[in-house]
UniProtKB/TrEMBL annotation:
Keyword 4Fe-4S: no
Coiled-coil regions, chain positions: 99-311, 515-671, 843-920, 979-1006
Entry keywords, A to Z: Coiled coil
Compositionally biased residues, Low complexity: 1228-1243
Spans annotated as Disordered: 786-816, 1194-1243
Organism the protein comes from: Sus scrofa (Pig)
Record protein name field: Forkhead-associated domain-containing protein 1 isoform X14
Superkingdom in the source lineage: Eukaryota
Bias-annotated ranges (Basic and acidic residues): 786-795, 1213-1227
Alphabetized InterPro entries for the sequence: CC-FHA_domain (IPR052642)
Signal peptide: none
Keyword Coiled coil: yes
C-alpha cells in the first residue's frame, strides 16, 4: 500500500490525469496539448518539487510577440502543473489500490452470497446452519454498504475537485488565448500603421515636391506679371501725357478713362490674387514644417519598433532554449503517463494481455471501467433480492413449523386409529378432521399426500368390507380391523390368484406398449426438429444463391442496356451528322434535284423498320426481365411466408400432440386407478401396485417435464421469430433514416457548394469591375496630366501672341481662368487618388474573401465522405465533358460562320452580276432613247423581269426555314441560338435583295410588251400556287399591277424594236430561272436520294402543253421532297420518344439497383446477427458448464461438511476457518473465470 500525498482536497481515483506536451517546431507558434499522465516516477524527480500550486490546463497558444515576463510566467505555470499532477497521480495510485482491494472484497462477498443461496436451497432442513449463514451475510452486507459509501464519497470529492481545477484551467487558457490574439491584432495593426505611414510619407513627399514646383511657377508668373505692370504703368504715363496734349479730344479721353478704370480694377484684382498666393505660400510652408515634424516622429517610431523587434528576437531565442528544457521535462512526464496508463490497464484487465496484436485504446479502458461499475450495480441488486428472499423464507419457515405441528397431532391420532382395530366409519371421521385442517401451501402437499394415503386405506377398508359383504361374509360389531378382513379374504384370495396373474401380464404388456409409443413420438419430434433446421439452412442457401443470380442478371441487364444505349447514341449521332451535312449542302447550293428520293425512302423505311424491331426487342427484353425479377421476388416472399406458415403449423401440431399425450396419460391414469381399486384384495398385491404406481408417476412426471421443455422451446422459437421480425423492421427504419439523412446531407452540401460558387462568381465579377474602374481612373488621370502639360506648354506661347496682337488686351483674365482650371485639375487628381486607394483596399478585401472561400471549399471537400467525393469527381468529369462538347459546338459555329461568309460572298458576286446587267440595260435604253422619240414610250412594271428569280428565291428561303427547324429538332436546344442567328442573317439578305429589286424597278419602268406581261402574270400565278401548295399557312400573293399605256396606241415603227428588247429580256430571265431550278432540284435529289424526280427538263423550247405537263411533273417533285422532309421529321420525333423511354428504363433500373443493395445489406446484417447469436449461445454454454462444475464442487463440500458434522461440534472454529478458505478459493476461481469470459464475449 502506498501512503496518500499531503493534499487537503479529496480526489477521485477514476478521474483522468492531464499534462502538457509542446507540439510544433521551436520557431513557430508552440501548442500545448493534453496527455495522459502517471504518478509513479514523478515522486523522485525535481519537477514535482519546484513550485506547488494551481495551474491552467487545456491548450495554451504562445505567440512570438509575447513579452519575456509572459513567457516566464507560462514556464512557471507549466512547472507548477507538472508538480501538482505528480501529487494527484500519487493520490490516484493509492486510491486505485484501495478500490482494487474493495472490488476484490465485493467479489468475495458476492461469491459468498451465491454460495449461501445455493446452500440454502440444498440445506433447508438445517435451521442452525442457515441462521449462522444469515448472520454472516448481514455482517458482510453492512461492510459492503460502508465500503460503497466510502467509495461514493471519494468519487464525489475527487470529481468536484477535478471539475473545479478543470474549470479554472479552462478559464486561464481562454484568458491567455484572448491575450495572445489581442497581441497578434496589435502587432498586425502596428505593421499596417507603419506601412500606411510610409505610404503617407511618400505621398506627402511627392505633394511637397509638386507644391515646390507650383510655388516656383507662381514666382515666375508673379515676376512676369510685375513686368507687365511696369509696362502698363509706362503706358499709363504715356497716356497721361497724351491726355495733357490732347485736351480737346474729350470723347477720346472718356474712352481712355474707362479703359483706365478697367485697368485699375484689374490691378486691384491682381493685387488680391498676389495676397492670396502669398497666404497659400505661408500655408504650404507651415504644412511642410508639420510634415517634416511628422516624418521625424515616424522615423523615431520606426527606430523604436526595430529595437523592440530585436529585443523580441532575443526573447524568442531564450524562449526556444526554455522550450527545449520544457520538452525534456514533458517527455519525462509522458513516460510517466504511459507507465500510469499501463498500470491502469493491468488493474482493469489483469496480468493477461487483453489484445496481444494491438494496443488498448482510451475508449476501451473507459468501457472496461464502465463494465466494472455495472457489475458492482448488478451485485448490489442481487444482494437486495437475496435479502428479500431470506426474509420471505424465514416467515414461511415459521408458518411451516406451526402447520407441521398441527399435522403431526392429526397424523398421530390417525396412526393411533390405524394401529387399533377400527372400521371404515372411524377412519372417515379422522379423514374429515384432516381435511378440515387449514394449512399453508408448502405443508398442504403433505396434507394432501396423507389424505390420499388415508383415503386409500379407507377405500381398502370399505372395499374389503364390501367384498366381504358381496362374498356373503357377514361382519359383527366386534369384528374390526384389516387383519380379520384379510383372514376372511385369504380363502377367497386363493380363488382369485389366477385372475390376478392374468391381469398382471396384461398390465406389463400395456406398459411396454406405452413406453415404446412414447419413445417413438420423441424420436419423431427430434427428427422433425432436425428436418426444420435443415430446411431453414437450405432455404437460406437458396435465398443467397437467388440473390447472387439476381445481382448477376441485373449486371448483365445493365451491360446490355448500356451497350444498346451506346449503339442508339452512335446511330443518333450519325443521323445528326447526316442532317448537319444536309443542312450545309442546302445552305450552300439552294437548288433542287429530283432523282434519288425513292432510294432514300426505301432506305429510310428499312432503317425505321430495323430500328423499330430493335426497339421492340429491347422493350420486350426489358419487360421480360422486369417480370422475371418481380416474379422471383414474389416467389421468394411467398416461399418465406409458406415456410413461416409451415413452422406455425408444425408448432400447432406439436401443441396438439402434447395435449393428446396429456389426455392419453390422464386416461391411462384413470384406467390404472380402476385396475388398482380392483386389485386391492391382498396386501402383497397392494404393495406391488403401490410400487408400480410410484414408478408410473415418476414416468408421467418425466414425460410432463419433457413436454414442458418442448413447450418452452417452442415459445422461445416463437419469441425469437418475433424478435427477428422486429429487428428486420428496425433495420429497415434505420436504413430509411440513414438514406434520408444522407440525402439531406447531400442537398445541404450541394447547396453550400452552389452558394460558395455564387459568392466566388460575385467576388470575381466585383474584382473585374473594380479593375476596370481602376483602369478608367488611371486613364482619366493620365488624360488630366496630359492636359495640364499641354496647358503649361501653351501658356508662354499664348502670352507672346497676346502681346503682339493687341497690346491693350487684358492678360490677367486669361491667367486667372488658367489658374482656376489648374486648381480644378489638382482637386480631380486628389479625388482620383483617394478613389484608387479605396478601391485597392476593396480589391484586397475581396481577394482575401476569395482565398477564404477557396479554403472553405477545400475544407468542405475534405469533410465530405467517399461517396460524396466520388459524386463530386463525377460532376467534374461531366463538366469537363460539357466543356469539350461546348468546344466542339464552338468549332461547328465557326464552320457555320465561315459557310455564312461564303454565302455572303456568293450573294455579293450575284449582286455585282445583277448590277452589271442593269448597267448594260441602262446603256441600251439610253441608246434607244437617242434614236426614238419620247412620245412612243410605254410605261410598264419591269420588275416582272426579275420576279421569277425572286419567287424561286422565296421558295428556297421557305425550304431553308423548314430545314433549319429540322436542324433545331435534330441538334436540340443547344443549336437553337445558332439557327436563329442564321435565320436573322437570311432575313437581312432578303431585305437587301428587296431593296435592290425596288431600286431596279424604279430605274426600269419602260419598254415591255403586252405578251410578255401575260407570260409574266401566268408565271407569277404558277409560282404562287407552288408556294401555297408547299406552305398553305402563308398569305396569298397579290397579283402584279400592270400599267397600261396612257397615250393610246403606239406608233407602228416603235413596236418591233420594243418587242425584240422584251423578248431578249424574257429569254435571259427564263434561262436564269431554269438554271437555278435545275441546280436546286439536282442538289435536293442527291441529298435526299430521290431518283423519281422527272421534272429535269428545260422549258425553253417547249410548247404550251408540254410546259403544263413539265409544270405538273415539277409540282409532283415538290410533293415528293415535302413528303421526304415530313418523314425525316417523324423519324426524329420517334427517336426522341425512344430515347426518353430508354432514359426512364435506366432510371427504373437504378432504383431497382438501390433496392437490391438495400436487400443485400439487410441480408448481411441478418447474417451478422445470426453469427452473434451463435457466439452468445456458445458463451452461455461455457458459462453454464462452469457453473455446473462449481455446483458439483459445492455439493462435494456440503457432503463432506454433513459427514463431519457429528465430530465437528467440538472443533467448530477450525472447521469454520477451513470452510471460509474453501469458499474464498471458489469465489476467486469464479471471478477469474468471469473476467476471462467477459473480454472474450466482448470481442
Amino acid at each position: 500500500m502506498v501512503p496518500p500525498a499531503s493534499h487537503k482536497r479529496p480526489v477521485s481515483a477514476g478521474g483522468k490525469m492531464f499534462s502538457f506536451v509542446m507540439d510544433g517546431p521551436t520557431h513557430g507558434v508552440p501548442i500545448i496539448n493534453q496527455v495522459w499522465t502517471n504518478a509513479v516516477e514523478l515522486s523522485g524527480q525535481s519537477v514535482a518539487e519546484e513550485i506547488p500550486g494551481a495551474g491552467s490546463s487545456g491548450e495554451i497558444f504562445m505567440d512570438e510577440d509575447l513579452g519575456q515576463q509572459d513567457k516566464d510566467e507560462i514556464i512557471l505555470l507549466l512547472g507548477k502543473e507538472v508538480s501538482r499532477l505528480s501529487d494527484f497521480e500519487l493520490e490516484s495510485k493509492y486510491k486505485d489500490a484501495v478500490i482494487a482491494n474493495l472490488q476484490n472484497e465485493v467479489a468475495n462477498l458476492s461469491q459468498k452470497l451465491s454460495e449461501t443461496a445455493t446452500s440454502r436451497q440444498n440445506e433447508r432442513v438445517i435451521p442452525p446452519k442457515l441462521q449462522v449463514l444469515d448472520e454472516d451475510v448481514d455482517a458482510k452486507e453492512r461492510e459492503i454498504q460502508s465500503l460503497k459509501s466510502q467509495i461514493s464519497a471519494l468519487q464525489k470529492g475527487y470529481s468536484q475537485v477535478l471539475c473545479q481545477t478543470l474549470s479554472e484551467r479552462n478559464s486561464e487558457i481562454a484568458s491567455l488565448k484572448n491575450e495572445g490574439e489581442n497581441l497578434r491584432r496589435d502587432h498586425a495593426v502596428t505593421a499596417e500603421v507603419v506601412s500606411s505611414l510610409k505610404k503617407d510619407v511618400l505621398v506627402k513627399d511627392e505633394q511637397v515636391q509638386q507644391l515646390k514646383q507650383e510655388v516656383n511657377q507662381l514666382k515666375s508668373e508673379n515676376k512676369e506679371k510685375d513686368h507687365q505692370l511696369e509696362a502698363l504703368s509706362s503706358r499709363c504715363s504715356v497716356l497721361k501725357e497724351e491726355l495733357k496734349k490732347e485736351g480737346a479730344q474729350k470723347e477720346h479721353r472718356e474712352a481712355q478713362e474707362k479703359e483706365l478704370k478697367l485697368y485699375k480694377t484689374q490691378i486691384h484684382d491682381m493685387e488680391k490674387e498676389v495676397k492670396k498666393l502669398r497666404e497659400e505660400l505661408k500655408r504650404s510652408s507651415t504644412e511642410q514644417s508639420l510634415i517634416s515634424k511628422t516624418l521625424r516622429e515616424k522615423s523615431k517610431v520606426e527606430e523604436k519598433l526595430q529595437e523592440d523587434s530585436r529585443r523580441k528576437l532575443l526573447q524568442l531565442q531564450e524562449m526556444g532554449n526554455r522550450e527545449n528544457l520544457i520538452k525534456v521535462n514533458l517527455e519525462r512526464a509522458v513516460g510517466q503517463l504511459e507507465h500510469f496508463r499501463s498500470q491502469v490497464i493491468k488493474a482493469t484487465y489483469g496480468r493477461a494481455k487483453p489484445f496481444q496484436d494491438r494496443p488498448v485504446s482510451d475508449q476501451q479502458l473507459i468501457e472496461r471501467i464502465a463494465q466494472v461499475t455495472e457489475d458492482n450495480v448488478n451485485l448490489q441488486q442481487k444482494k437486495w433480492v437475496l435479502q428479500r428472499e431470506t426474509q420471505h423464507s424465514s416467515s414461511r419457515q415459521e408458518e411451516m413449523a406451526e402447520t407441521v405441528e398441527k399435522l403431526q397431532t392429526t397424523l398421530a391420532s390417525c396412526q393411533a386409529c390405524m394401529k387399533m382395530s377400527c372400521c371404515s366409519s372411524d377412519l372417515k371421521k379422522e379423514v374429515a378432521l384432516l381435511q378440515h385442517l387449514q394449512v399453508s401451501p408448502p405443508v398442504s402437499g403433505l396434507q394432501m399426500v396423507a389424505l390420499d394415503i388415508l383415503r386409500l386405506s379407507l377405500s381398502w377398508l370399505e372395499e374389503t368390507e364390501q367384498l366381504l359383504r358381496d362374498v356373503g361374509i357377514q361382519l359383527s360389531s366386534s369384528d374390526k380391523g384389516l387383519s380379520l378382513y384379510l383372514k376372511y379374504l385369504l380363502e377367497h384370495y386363493k380363488k382369485i390368484a389366477n385372475q390376478t396373474q392374468e391381469l398382471q401380464i396384461k398390465i406389463s404388456s400395456s406398459q411396454e406398449t406405452q413406453q415404446s409409443l412414447l419413445q417413438e413420438k420423441l424420436r419423431e419430434h427430434l427428427a422433425e426438429k432436425e428436418q426444420l433446421s435443415m430446411e431453414r439452412l437450405q432455404e437460406e442457401e437458396r435465398l443467397k444463391a437467388r440473390i447472387k443470380r439476381l445481382v448477376e442478371e441485373k449486371a448483365d441487364l445493365e451491360e446490355s442496356i448500356t451497350q444498346e444505349k451506346n449503339r442508339a447514341k452512335e446511330a443518333l449521332e450519325e443521323e445528326q451528322k447526316r442532317v448537319q451535312e444536309l443542312e450545309n449542302r442546302l445552305t450552300r447550293q439552294k437548288k433542287a434535284l429530283e432523282e434519288s428520293i425513292s432510294q432514300e425512302k426505301n432506305r429510310a423505311k428499312e432503317a425505321l423498320e430495323e430500328e423499330q424491331t430493335k426497339v421492340q426487342e429491347l422493350e420486350n427484353r426489358l419487360a421480360r426481365q422486369k417480370e422475371i425479377a418481380e416474379s422471383s421476388i414474389a416467389y421468394e416472399k411467398h416461399k418465406a411466408m409458406e415456410a413461416i406458415e409451415k413452422e406455425k403449423k408444425k408448432v400447432q401440431d406439436l401443441e396438439n400432440r402434447i395435449t393428446k399425450q396429456k389426455e392419453e396419460i390422464d386416461l391411462q391414469v384413470q384406467k390404472e386407478d380402476i385396475l388398482n381399486n380392483k386389485l386391492n384384495d391382498a396386501l402383497a398385491m397392494v404393495e406391488k401396485t403401490q410400487k408400480t404406481k410410484t414408478a408410473e408417476c415418476l414416468k408421467a412426471e418425466s414425460l410432463t417435464m419433457q413436454l414442458k421443455e418442448t413447450v418452452a422451446e417452442l415459445e422461445t422459437a416463437k419469441t425469437k421469430m418475433i424478435m427477428m421480425e422486429e429487428r428486420i423492421q428496425r433495420l429497415q427504419h434505420t436504413v430509411r433514416a440513414l438514406q434520408e439523412d444522407h440525402e439531406s446531407q447531400k442537398h445541404g452540401f450541394e447547396n453550400e457548394i452552389m452558394e460558395y460558387k455564387e459568392q466566388i462568381k460575385q467576388h470575381s465579377q466585383t474584382i473585374v469591375s473594380l479593375e476596370e474602374r481602376l483602369q478608367k481612373v488611371t486613364e482619366h488621370h493620365k488624360k488630366i496630366e496630359g492636359e495640364i502639360a499641354t496647358l503649361k506648354d501653351n501658356e508662354p506661347a499664348q502670352e507672346g501672341d497676346v502681346q503682339q496682337r493687341d497690346p491693350a488686351a487684358a492678360p490677367s483674365l486669361e491667367n486667372s481662368g488658367k489658374d482656376t482650371v489648374c486648381d480644378h485639375l489638382i482637386e480631380d487628381l486628389l479625388t482620383a487618388q483617394k478613389e484608387i486607394l479605396s478601391q485597392q483596399e476593396v480589391i484586397m478585401k475581396l481577394r482575401k474573401n476569395l482565398t477564404e472561400a477557396h479554403s472553405r471549399m477545400s475544407d468542405l471537400r475534405g469533410e465530405l465522405s467517399e461517396k460524396q467525393k466520388m459524386e463530386l469527381e463525377r460532376n467534374v468529369a461531366l463538366v469537363q465533358q460539357q466543356s469539350s462538347e461546348l468546344s466542339v459546338l464552338k468549332e461547328k459555329m465557326a464552320q457555320m460562320s465561315s459557310l455564312v461568309e461564303k454565302k455572303d460572298k456568293e450573294l455579293e458576286v450575284l449582286k455585282q452580276a445583277l448590277r452589271a446587267s442593269q448597267e448594260k440595260h441602262k446603256l441600251q435604253l439610253h441608246k434607244e432613247k437617242e434614236h426614238k422619240p419620247r412620245n412612243a414610250t410605254q410605261t410598264c412594271d419591269i420588275s416582272v423581269q426579275i420576279e421569277p428569280i425572286h419567287t424561286d428565291i422565296f421558295l428556297s428561303s421557305q425550304e431553308e426555314q423548314s430545314f433549319s427547324d429540322l436542324g433545331a429538332k435534330c441538334k436540340g436546344s443547344r443549336h437553337e441560338e445558332v439557327i436563329q442567328r442564321q435565320k436573322k442573317a437570311l432575313s437581312e439578305l432578303r431585305a437587301r435583295i428587296k431593296e435592290l429589286e425596288q431600286a431596279s424597278s424604279s430605274n426600269h419602268e419602260e419598254h415591255m410588251d403586252e405578251s410578255f406581261l401575260d407570260l409574266k402574270t401566268l408565271r407569277m400565278e404558277k409560282n404562287a400556287q407552288k408556294i401555297l401548295d408547299v406552305k398553305p399557312d402563308l398569305p396569298t400573293l397579290s397579283r402584279v399591277e400592270i400599267r397600261m399605256p396612257q397615250n393610246g396606241l403606239s406608233s407602228p415603227g416603235s413596236i418591233p424594236a420594243t418587242e425584240k428588247l422584251g423578248k431578249t429580256d424574257v429569254t435571259e430571265a427564263l434561262d436564269l430561272s431554269e438554271k437555278l431550278y435545275m441546280d436546286m432540284s439536282k442538289t435536293l435529289g442527291s441529298l435526299m436520294n430521290i431518283k423519281d424526280m422527272s421534272g429535269h427538263v428545260s422549258m425553253k423550247h417547249l410548247s404550251p402543253k408540254e410546259r403544263e405537263r413539265v409544270n405538273q411533273l415539277r409540282q409532283r417533285d415538290l410533293d415528293l421532297v415535302f413528303d421526304k422532309i415530313t418523314q425525316l421529321k417523324n423519324r426524329l420525333e420517334r427517336k426522341e420518344e425512344l430515347l426518353r423511354g430508354y432514359e426512364k428504363d435506366i432510371e427504373q433500373l437504378r432504383q431497382s439497383k438501390v433496392s437490391v443493395q438495400m436487400y443485400q445489406s439487410q441480408v448481411a446484417k441478418l447474417e451478422d446477427d445470426v453469427y452473434k447469436q451463435a457466439e452468445e449461445k456458445a458463451l452461455l454454454k461455457e458459462a453454464l458448464q462452469r457453473m455446473e462444475h462449481q455446483l458439483h464442487q459445492e455439493k462435494r463440500v456440503n457432503r463432506a461438511i454433513r459427514q463431519q458434522k457429528v465430530g465437528a461440534r467440538k472443533a467448530s472454529p477450525k472447521i469454520d476457518q477451513e470452510r471460509q478458505m474453501l469458499k474464498r478459493e471458489v469465489s476467486s476461481k469464479s471471478s477469474q473465470s468471469l473476467l476471462s469470459s467477459k473480454p472474450g464475449g466482448r470481442s
